Every structure is written in C-alpha cells, then in structure tokens.
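Quick illustration, no need to memorize.
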Amino acid sequence: MAVSERERAFIERVAGYKAQSHREAQARHRALGLDERLERSWELFLAGREARAARERDDDPSPLYERARALGLCS
C-alpha cells in the first residue's frame, strides 16, 4: 500500500501535536504537590472506570491510527 507525502506529513503533524500536548500535561501534573497529584490521579481513575470505551465513542480515532500503522507511518 503506497503512502502519499500528504498522508505522511499529516500523521507527522498529528504526532507532533500529541507529543507537545503530553509534555504540557506532564509539566502541569508535576507542578502540583504530591497530595494534589494523588487526588487528581484517583479522580481520573474513577472517571475512567465510568467512561465508555473508546470504541463506543463517536469520536474514536482508532481507524486513523490503524490505517497509519498499516501504511507504516507509526508503530
């Protein structure tokens, strides 16, 4: 399956945005005190247990990443 430069550039941009977002979230999290970090982690855990699975959501990005993996654009 051939990959166009446009597809490659798009996936690279998405990966860059996600990496930057993760770095920013990690910096915000690490800036919190230990008690705040633990409380936030617990709240996120509880919210995640109640949330619907990604495959059930309307905005599920899985098909995009499956195609990118099939094209060898990401692992």
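The longest helix spans residues 5-31.
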